[in-house]
Design a protein that fits this description.
This is AraC family transcription regulator. The chain is α/β, with parallel strands linked by helices. Helix content is about 45%, strand content about 15%. The protein has helices at about 15-30, 85-95, 110-115, 130-135, 160-175, 175-185, 200-205, 210-225, 230-240, 240-255, 255-275, 280-285, 290-300, and strands at about 1-5, 35-40, 45, 50-55, 65-70, 100-105, 120-125, 140, 150, 155.
Length: about 300
């Protein structure tokens, strides 16, 4: 079970907090092992939108499997806002030192900077305070105008709705992009995976549509991409005719179901190769008979 610990500052933006919270809540509803805890330095946390949240002040004992997220707060400037005390910042530092992941949304990056977690690391924040973040933390490498950045278990995102993208990325990293796509679909949002490696995931990149016929087909291909799935079988899964499926799939993704499956295979094979697998072994794991097809498709990509 992964505990998601939200550290809330006075003036927290509701969507900075609620976006990621909804992602992990939906993931739990779909059977993924997440629980949430809301923490603060006081029990009553006023939000930027006027609602008061209730937080616990006693931190649970965390493990490296847990995730700490610092949502952003109303910050015309970073200086003088989000005023966490030394104890809260030390919690962030200790959790990361123990092997855990620490994330932020929007101005929350400043708390990570004050905890020393941005030193020498790539990071981002809302475009309105990027320059100030760089000035306040000169050892940080601030990446501008991206949705989120991942660097050594420190994950920072741009702000407001980008917290949803950050949370979907974390779900994809822990449980695979198919599960993240399920969460995004349940939330009726476009599954995006932008950041330091923009639109890296084939699966998430081609889920930005609302065609249920194509979603059902992608669900099957995502889960069984290493199998030989013929067009008649995919059409039966989608509940439509073969020509209709091909037409819908091209319109929604710009490619055929076969091409989509090939891209899924190549992406998975590249991951295996990066982890030390040989081309031949990776090719067989993802469903190719040998490495020749894999090499041709990688060259085409």
């Amino acid at each position: 079970m992964t505990r998601v610990l939200f550290l809330l500052a006075p003036g927290v933006h509701l969507l900075d907090f609620a976006g990621p919270a909804q992602v992990f809540s939906t993931a739990a509803d779909l059977g993924l092992p997440y629980t949430q805890h809301h923490l603060g330095e006081t029990t009553d946390i006023p939000t930027a939108q006027g609602i008061v949240l209730t937080a616990a002040t006693d931190w649970p004992r965390s493990s490296p499997d847990d995730l700490i997220i610092v949502p952003g707060w109303r910050a015309p400037t970073l200086r003088g806002t989000g005023t966490f005390g030394a104890a809260a910042l030390e919690r962030l530092t200790a959790h990361h030192a123990a092997g855990g992941t620490v994330a932020s949304v929007c101005a929350g990056a400043d708390a990570l900077g004050r905890a020393g977690l941005l030193d020498g690391r790539r990071c981002t924040t809302h475009h309105d305070v990027q320059d100030e973040l760089a000035a306040r933390h000169p050892r940080a490498i601030v990446v501008r105008d991206v949705l989120y950045v991942v660097d050594d278990r420190v994950v920072t995102s741009a702000g407001i709705a980008s917290g949803i993208d950050l949370a979907l990325h974390l779900v994809a990293s822990a449980h695979g992009p198919a599960q993240a796509a399920r969460v995004a679909r349940a939330m009726v949002v476009y599954a995006r995976r932008n950041g330091s490696d923009p639109q890296a995931s084939v699966m998430l990149r081609h889920r930005d549509h609302l065609d249920d016929v194509v979603h059902r087909t992608q669900d099957a291909l995502d889960a069984r991409f290493s199998e030989s799935l013929r067009l008649p079988e995919l059409a039966a899964i989608a509940g439509t005719a073969e020509r209709t499926l091909t037409r819908h799939f091209r319109r929604a993704t710009g490619m055929t179901p076969l091409r989509y499956q090939q891209l899924l295979r190549v992406e998975r094979a590249e991951h295996l190769i990066e982890q030390g697998s040989t081309h031949e072994a990776a090719a067989r794991v993802v469903g190719f008979e040998d490495a020749r097809m894999l090499r041709r498709l990688r060259a085409r990509a």
